[in-house]
Batch of 3 targets.
Target 1
Amino acid sequence: MDIKEIVGDYNSFLDTIFELLIKGGFKENELKELPIDHICYRVSTNEFYNEKKEQLNQLGELLVETEIGGRMISTFKLNKPIQYKDKSIPLIELPAPKKNRINYDGLEHIEMVINEPFQSFVDNHPSPIDENLKFNWVLHALNKDINPDVECEFIDPRIKNEIRTISVKFHHQSLEEVVKYEIQLLKENK
């Protein structure tokens, strides 16, 4: 089984993400410097979550499955990272569906690691250069105890009928580092 059979056409998804980031005012050379630490695949049902979890387990190692926000989230380290242009994406995040919310199957976001303070990063990217682009900075995760982030959320006209967004989250630590830290915390609290 191939990763594209499990998550779909990640190249088209990533092309869309980077196109939206450029239209959102990000510089191409800036984006080349930022590593993508993971890609997120959402599911609509718990049954589909379990099916995708089994499939991903064949292509990598389950680093952790933990409850966050009332639902399970699995993080896999792929045996063969996803290759996209000059980027290598080692992890895939698989969250179970949120209760009382319409959930869709498919790729939803990527996360990139930045070295800049969050506020200056947001200030340096204030608004889209394309006036037709719907773009929001989501800042509610700035105060998270573990792995705070800022999120650049897009409503892409190609998916607006699905009433969902796609996004890029920017944080200071890779998800793999965060998972190691969380596992260490769990061991210490036993």
Target 2
Amino acid sequence: MQTVVSADGTEIAYESRGNGRPIVLVHGIAGSKESWRTIPERLADDFRAVAMDRRGRGDSGDGDRYALQREVEDVQAVLDAVGDDPVLFGHSFGGLVALEAAADADIDSLLLYEPAVVVGEHPGGVQRAARMRDLLAAGDREQAVELFFRGFGGQELVDEMPIAAIAGIAETVVREHDVVVEYGVDEFDADVDAPARLVVGEASDDHVNRAVDAVADRLGADVVTLAETGHHGLETAPAQLEDAVRSFLD
């Protein structure tokens, strides 16, 4: 494990595997650098896969004042540490962070797997955020986390997630939910010079597909669909995901 110091002094941890072109991996709301465990081993022959812990997760520290910009600065610190012409790959909320970082970062390519961007109305988002904070204040951490996942993916997503384990980072889940609710697809700087590819799961909900298509349109990117899987292709479709990466970067 290695660490870098972000702009606000927070220590950000990352692990590297393989040799060659660096590809920085940014995990989602429910994850850590371990979420990418199936991908580095598949890319190690040709790439240096660098999986980071976002702030407040895993081995990384956490600052006093959270903001999306702090996350962008964390990614930039890791990019600066890994060498020239890095590829940036974000999943879910990590995709939103990577999208924001890509506007100013000196990267070779950008990959986004179902970035946590909402298109159009987000029914109940503000009310859900308030309810999640009430549950946290009452000490109902698991209920707060369950409410988050039910809001974005229904009971099916709740059933897929290790709610009890994620409850340990309930505060970070809630603050990132706030970012998603407040963020609009029209807000990001579409002036990204690097070529980009979006990835979406065939089984993902319509609102996810709308978001992926909207981001791809803004970036002038293509979209690759992973068959017979949804938001968790890192675990359920690693071979397809590897193909999506290699066909884009080779």
Target 3
Amino acid sequence: MLTTSQVHPVDAVLLDMDGTILNSIKSAERIWSAWALRHGLDVDAFLPTIHGVQTVETIRRLGLPSVDPHAEAAAITQAEIDDVEGIEAIAGVAEFLGALAEGSWGIVTSAPRALALRRIEAAGLPTPPLLIAAEDVAHGKPAPDCFHLAAARLGTTADRCLVVEDSRAGIVAAERAGATILVITSTHPTPMAVEHPAIVDYRDLVLETTPDGSLHIRHAQGGGDRPARLSCIVKAGRPSETSRPRL
């Protein structure tokens, strides 16, 4: 856990998508609620289980008879691509992303690539220089594979990355990857107890460019007691120029 006296050096920032850079809850819950009703599920009990993991895994673990998880997941994904009404950027995220050097950040999501790009566009956010999506890994969150892959493509390792996450599955994946973690709680209906630094949204952060061109990311002053406060430096000149970020 970071203390106020620690400044943690990192090479890159990896951000989850849903609940972390944008709020897609209204769209997702419209589609998943209709699906749950068709399959006789308790909607209120089911909806909290959809966040942070791949769609196919959400369906598979229900063990519904005569249901093909891959076919159902494909249909849900298409419905989500078609319905982006109400998707909004998390407050302050555009400024946060704009402060990061192009080769020093990426999005790491459990959503399929086409859906991720559609939602990012709908939220009015820039296309990320790197996107790791559901299709890119054999094992989704809470497995750490996605963060290891993203870090490698940015020319570094996961333990040299700051991961911004909102879901329990994503936090566990980042912990397993050895990353520094920042939790964002803007879309949490109830507080989630975590030992990591946390913010409501990106307005809770101060971004400062250091004399060598690095970016210092830290908690704003005030805001009451926190179990941990973030203070990290995204080093200038990293990641390696030999690893070109890509979608």
